[in-house]
Amino acid sequence: MNKYKSIEQVISPPAPHMVGDGFRVHNFFPGSKTVGLQRMSPFFLMDYGSKIEFSGTNTPRGVGVHPHRGFETVTIVYHGKVAHHDSAGNSGVIGEGDVQWMTAASGILHKEYHEKEWSKNGGLFQMVQLWVNLPAKYKMSKPKYQPIEGERFGRFLLPGNQGLVEVIAGNFNGAKGPANTFTPIEMYNVKVKKGANVIFSFPEYFNTGFLIIEGNVILNNKEVNTNNFALFANNGTDIIVEANEDSVILVLSGEPIDESIVPYGPFLMNTKEEIMQAYEDLNKGKFGYLED
Ligand code: MN
């Protein structure tokens, strides 16, 4: 058995597209031709909003009311502020360094905008949105909403002043993440200083990828630059991170959900019939109501 996971691919950021007028994102998967539909399961989608400057405006940019069913959206804000409202009556602001973990499950309508006051001046914006699949038995469970302020992350201080691991979900060396997940997921912000040398270990069968938010690192002897995504093969367990400069890495690792899926638009279900049902339920108003 290999001890070290090998890197299957380093993916540079695909050409960006706009989601509404507020989110300029690189879709690393499932859009990438080189990454299979379920390759990063339970993570189905990763939209990365690399750094961009927005000018000030009194009309906040964003994306209007739209539905989701069958999965969770996880929004991680590195720079800027995102406001959110949904038809389950939840709303909030995801500030710099915060995470919002929204379980759409049986269905919600929501809208996502730059926060109003932040929008007036505009500024630097950087974020990630993940779609996390749910096992069939949880797809029609009740929607839920976990606002996770950065101060609630688990924190593991790396020895020798090498930096910090912020644990959003899972457990790193005893530091536990506050997110409740339906399947085993490890999600960290790794903030390492130049010269740091840190080992991570995940089960061989967990799908694992590192997105470089800032800096430049060597992952198991391969250099990976800012805004690139390193997808690891399902061999070995360990990943050595060596920081060439002060760096921030979004670490994703999770147990795959071994079920067939049918994604369509804003829905992620197991069968075509369930997709048709989702549209029928949406048209019947079963996703509730939310003002635009
Ligand atoms: Mn959405």
Low-confidence segments, ≥5 residues, pLDDT <50? none
Helicity, as a percent range: under 10%
Topology order in helix (H) and strand (E) letters: EEEEEEEEEEHEEEEEEEEEEEEEEEEH
Largest beta sheet: strand ordering: 1-22-19-24-17-14-13
Topology, number of strands: 26
What do these coordinates show?
The chain has 292 residues and is mainly beta. It has one domain (7-254): Jelly Rolls (Sandwich). Helix content is 6%, strand content 51%. It is built from two helices and 26 strands. The protein has helices at 116-121, 272-283, and strands at residues 7-11, 17-19, 23-29, 43-54, 62-68, 71-79, 82-86, 91-94, 99-103, 108-114, 123-133, 144-148, 154-158, 163-169, 171-172, 175-176, 185-192, 197-201, 207-214, 216-219, 222-225, 229-232, 238-243, 247-254, 262-264, 267-269. The strands form six sheets. The protein has a seven-stranded antiparallel beta sheet with strand order 1-22-19-24-17-14-13, with no helix packed on it. A seven-stranded antiparallel beta sheet has the order 2-3-4-11-6-9-12. A hairpin with a 2-residue loop joins β15 and β16 (175-176). It is globular.
